[in-house]
Design a protein that fits this description.
binds phosphoenolpyruvate, binds magnesium ion, Enzyme I, Chain A, domain 2, Glucose Oxidase, domain 1, 4 domains, elongated, alpha/beta, Beta-Lactamase, eight-stranded parallel β-sheet
Length: about 750
Amino acid sequence: MMRAPGGPRLLLRRLREVMAEPVIAQARLDRIVVLIASNMVAEVCSLYVVRADGAMELFATEGLNREAVHLTTMRPGEGLVGLIASSAEPLALSDAQHHPSFSYRPETGEEIYQSFLGVPVLRGGATIGVLVVQNRARRAYSEEEIEALQTTAMLLAEMIASGELQGIASQGAPIAVRRQLSLKGLGIADGLGLGHVVMHQPRVTVSTIVADDVESELTRLETAISAMRASVDSLIDRSDDGVSGEHRDVLEAFRMIAHDRGWLRRLREAVSSGLTAEAAVERVHNDARAKLQRQTDPYLRDRLHDLTDIANRLLHQLAGQSLVLLPEELPENAILVARSMSPAALLDYDRARLRGLVLEEAGASSHIAIVARALAIPAVSDIANISEIVEQGDAIIVDGDAGEIYLRPPADVEAAYAEKARMRARRQAQYRALRDAPTVSLDGVSIGLHMNAGLLVDMPHLAETGAESIGLFRTELQFMLASRFPRPGAQQQLYRAILDAAGDRPVTFRTLDIGGDKLLPYMKGLEEENPALGWRALRIGLDRPALLRMQFRAFIRAAAGRDLKIMAPMVSTVDEFRTARAMFDRELNWSQSRGHEPPRTTSLGVMVEVPSLLWQLDEIATAADFLSVGSNDLMQYLYAVDRDNRRVANRFDPLSVGFLRALRSIADAGERHGTPVTLCGEIGGRTLEAMTLMAIGYRELSMSAPSIGPVKAMTLTLNVGEARREVEPMLAKGRENASLREPLQQLAERLGVRL
Ligand code: PEP
Ligand code: MG
């Protein structure tokens, strides 16, 4: 049995010294491989670095022909080196040349070496290099030697990840860790952002790998594990109080891992082998990741996420660093990158410094997406593994419109996006210039443009956009962001703050629209087979009158002395609305009888979003003070397409004969009865759709803040009467493929409407 001179501890100390020397990258690498070879008593030591194209390039060698450096490359999966890269596991062979994967490269002169030991250089779950030692004689490498080489590879990972080696790569071919990446995800908040990566949970860099004193290192590990367990427990307790933003089941999974015996045993073993507690966490995690990453079972892959999170928590505990970046540490032009993030955490950051947000997991209707949109932060989610791929400070572009990100973009892409962002800013400036202009069409038709909101942070947009009112305030967002049912006081406080922020402009509050896709984590028993057709919105309010009454009371108190407008979602029959109105009246009387100042005026409306109302329009237009069309749901129910199911959501076009006829009938009913009609679904915010809505009789549209400028600019170039004359026959005639998008687009062009 050969003994390494000085052992791994000495080797790592020497390597650290070499890494700190002020020499060029190649000279440093050359010294490193000599040191490793001599310490491991091997004739050969070579380092391969994985390039962006997946090939492995020989970057340094002691023992093989020096001429082969930067010349020899192995294709992805080729040879023993390729096998290690793809398996992310060590490989030790006493007779390498007879291994089926062995691939002989004459320029290296490696035919005389029989024994082979290679380990992956790992970073964030990916192989970024392969470190190899070879011996002339046949020999078996011991477990200790394999571990020593793995430990050395951890140190090299830092060097490769620093990007220092990029300058010496063959013909400047990009190496994997610094490669440019264009990744497609899901755009969850519109806009373009250029900046630099700031990790919401920064990784801890493990710099001391070998421990001086195993016993004290074991104690450090145990102390950190206890502290981490306690912090997870306290998060679980706080999740009951509604303080934490994390979901309880995720925290429970953390707790399970934190008490997992196998995991703890592996950590202790790694420390006992001589690693520092930090290096042990990283090593054990790298091994687990290599195994779990090959799993296709989504459950096991989720566990990998949890495992990564808990390892990260433990590392922060050991390093004495706070787990998340402190909001005041945020640099300018920051693009936040996180696996997932609670809305509260996002709200903590200084908005003025944020340029974008990239997440691994968050749906378009998730809470974080809602908050990102309210704050106008471009955001993309569904980018697998992003928090592992990026390095702090990497250049990055977030394209929330296209749902794409560019990591380390080349200069031309960056320039193109910078230009796009400038154009966008110019357009925004034009819209701002229109802010105070009345929204009147070329033929003198006045159009009311209103804003949809749901959070207090939405409110500054009201003045910025010049919207006439809040046409839809989605009260459920407060409930969705909280981790327990908001008390009446909190509801009233929010509604008052909203009315204060709106000043003279009216606010239309919508009663709770929960159920369906909007589940409250703390309201159990709402899971249903077919939630869109289930117990939701007003249906819950009517069955649990205490809930609805509590909300009515909060509205009434908040609006003392002011105008109060409320509308009910998911009304299917006229008598549902009448029941709700009777409840409201009772609440109003009760409040007055107790001496509370009543609202100056009250007005109760109905969302038209369940198709059954289309055949009760005269009755509902008489019963309600106003109607507001929820085109998102109306489209979903009329065409039987789940609005959140990407496979079918865009199967039918809202600009179809059927849907437009339905919409027109609502506007006509409003006109017949003198009942104001607004439309507050997404289509109202799209210019071609808005033009069409005006042509079929809509005069009030409520939309998200960024849409107001474009729709106003469109209206100023539109002759509503002329459009109406052209659209009427299209609707009368129908069309076999149903969508009128193309002819409407041509019409806009012909009429010179700015879309
Ligand atoms: C709608 O359904 O169109 C609507 C405005 O409400 P929500 O999107 O909140 O269901
Ligand atoms: Mg709706």
